[in-house]
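Justification of computing resources. Each target in the renewal requires a structure prediction run like the one illustrated here; the chain below, 339 residues long, is used simply to show the kind of job we budget for.
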Amino acid sequence: MLNLILHALLCGLRARRSLALENLALRQQILILQRANPKPVFKPLDRLFWVLLSRLWPGWRRPLRLVKPDTVIAWHRQLWRHWWRRKSRPSEPGRPRIPLELIELIRRISRENPTWGAPRIHGEVLMLGFEVSEATVARYMIKRRGRPTQDWKTFLTNHLGETVAVDFLTVPTVMFKTLHVFVVLSLERRRIVHLNVTRHPTAAWTATQLRLAFPFETAPRFLVRDRDGIYGFEVQQAIESLGIEQLVISPRSPWQNGYCERVVGTLKRECLDHLIPLSEGHARRILRGYLEYYHGSRTHLGLGKDTPDGRAVETRGLGLVGRRAMVGGLHSRYFRKAA
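Resulting C-alpha cells:
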C-alpha cells in the first residue's frame, strides 16, 4: 500500500515536472516571437479572452508576456463602456424628424411671402394641421439678407388693376384696303375692355373710343401708350378729362408696352392671320366672336392657366367631353356634358 502511494506521488511529480518544462519551452518561444514582433496585433476575440480570463483566474497576471496587465484592464473598461452605451442607447437618437413635406411647405410659404417672419409662418403651418415649434420653422425658412421686402412682381401686380394699355394693329381686306383695329387692354386680368375697327383712324375717333371704353367713372389711373401721331390733341384732352395719367413709352421701345403688344400678336396669330375680312362690319364681327373665346375659354399662362373671365374646373364625374366650335371652327371649347 505504501509503495502504491509513493508511485502515485512520483507520477504526479513527473507530470508536474513535464508540465513545468512544457510551460518553460512555450515561454521561451514567446520571448523569441516578442523580439521578432515587439507589438503584436490583438484581435477583438483575443482581447475578450483575456478580459474573461482576468475575471475567472486570480493569477492571470503571471503568464502575461505579450501585453501588460494595465492594457487588459483598459480593454475591460472599454468593453464595459461599450456595453452600457449600447444598452442605454435610445431607439431614435436626437430630436424627432419632421417630414419632408413640412420642410418644403415652410420654404414655399417663406418664398411666396417675403415679408412674413417665423411667427407668421408658424401660425399658418399650425392652421394647416402640422405640429411643429416656431424654432423649427425659423430653421427651415428661406434666409434673406437685410430687411424683407416685396419683389417687383408683387409690386407691379398690385398696380395692374389701375392700369390699361392701348395700341393699334392693321389688317388687310379682300379688296386690299387697310383696316385699323384699336385695342384697349386692362392689365389686371388681360381683359380687352374695348375693341373697334375703322378705315380712317383719327384723333377724334380715338378719343371717342376712349370715352366709350370707360363710361360712368370707370376710368383707370394710368394709361400706357406709344408715341404714334394719332394720339393728338383730342386724345390727350379726352385722357385728361377722364382723370387718367398717361405713360408714354420711349421711342422705338415696344417692349415697354409689352402686355398690349402680346395681345396684338395673339389677335394676329390666332384670328386675323387665318381670315380675310370683307369689310369693317365683317372684321368687327370676327373680332367680337374671337373675344368671346378669348375671355371665356382661352387659358392664359400669365393667369395660371385660367381665363380672363374665370373658368370653372369640370370634374370627370360630370359626364363625357364635348366640343363647341368657336370663331367659325378656328378654335374649340371643350366641356363636360351629361350622359
